[in-house]
Amino acid sequence: MTRTFFVGGNFKMNGSLDKVKSIVEGLNAGSLPSDVEVVISPPFPYLKWAKDHLTASTVEIAAQNSFDRGDGAFTGEVSVAQIKDVGSTWVILGHSERRTILKESDEFIADKTKYALDNGLKVILCIGETLEERQKDETLTVCNRQLDAVIAKVSDWSDIVVAYEPVWAIGTGLAATPDDAQDVHSKIRAHLAEKIGEKQAEGVRILYGGSVNGKNATTFNGKPDIDGYLVGGASLKPEFLDIIKSRA
Ligand code: 13P
User: Fold this and answer.
1) From 97, 104, 165, 185, active-site residue
2) Which of 95, 97, 129, 185 is catalytic?
3) What single Pfam family name could you report for this chain, choosing any that match (predicted)?
4) HSE-up of residue 76 (Cα within 13 Å, Cβ side)
5) Contacts of 90 (CB under 8 A, 6+ apart)
6) 234 and 240 in contact (C-beta within 8 Å)?
7) Which CATH number covers residue 134?
8) Mutate to test the pocket of ligand 1, among 91, 213, 230 (most ligand atoms within 8 A of CB)
9) What is the CA radius of gyration of the chain?
């Protein structure tokens, strides 16, 4: 089973229209490889601009959140229909910053995932343990629990990409080692195989996220269960192109 290499850029709550313009121009001029799926995720106000100005056919747009219901009296929320209306095809759900800072529960994330998929958005589903959980040897317990909440509600995983993002590696400059990441990824895939079947699990891309940059990206090459990256800080910099080309 060949899984298309996937590089996501999560801008988080960073940037400005000028910044997004320079990133999109960089991607347009970047001679991107045709066999790498790239998804960038600017903040909501810039989704439409980014979509309208991207010329690279391999680049799609993701929102950084969506709600678990359709249009209605939900002040401050953004609907799946609205995200699709401006040309986005993906949404990032379950990011640790939303789990920890916004107190989103496994259950809520699963509801949002189901709603997004049922209504035609593809989902980058983030999972991962905190430093404290890692030190207590709970990495897989946490990842499996976060996956199981979604497994309970979603049976077709063909439009889900899983991003394993250990919280201790996010924004710290301390990426997981390629061996450690591969070990967790293979166990995540084994867990998925047990729960959603081997065939589906073989097809699910599992990205690594946490301090990936233009220098360390190639060190993950050759790890069979690492199908790409979800990049934060470095996706705002020219080195994002190096990450996109790191598998070449
Ligand atoms: P950094 O690449 O900045 O560590 O962030 C990773 C991340 O959270 C992507 O979603």
Assistant:
1) 165
2) 95
3) TIM
4) 0
5) 39, 41, 60, 61, 62, 63, 121, 122, 123, 124
6) yes
7) 3.20.20.70
8) 230
9) 17
Ligand 1 in reach of 173 Cβ (< 6 A):
no
7: left (phi over 0), alpha (psi -120 to 50) or beta: beta
86-114 exposure pattern, b = at least 16 Cβ within 10 A, e = fewer: bebbbbbbbbbbbbeeeebebebbbbbbb
> By residue range, what is the domain housing residue 120?
5-244
Per-residue model confidence as pLDDT tens digits over 155-200: 999 999 999 999 999 999 999 999 999 999 999 999 999 999 999 9
Burial class (CB in 10 A: 0-12, 13-18, 19+), 173: exposed
* Closest alpha carbon to 93 in 71, 67, 69: 67
Q: Is 104 a catalytic residue?
A: no
The fraction of the chain above a pLDDT of 70, given in percent, is: 100
The pLDDT, as a whole number, for residue 1 is 66
Number of domains in the chain: 1
Question: pTM of this prediction?
Answer: 0.98
Active site residue 95: yes
Ligand 1 atom with the smallest distance to the CA of 209 is: 6
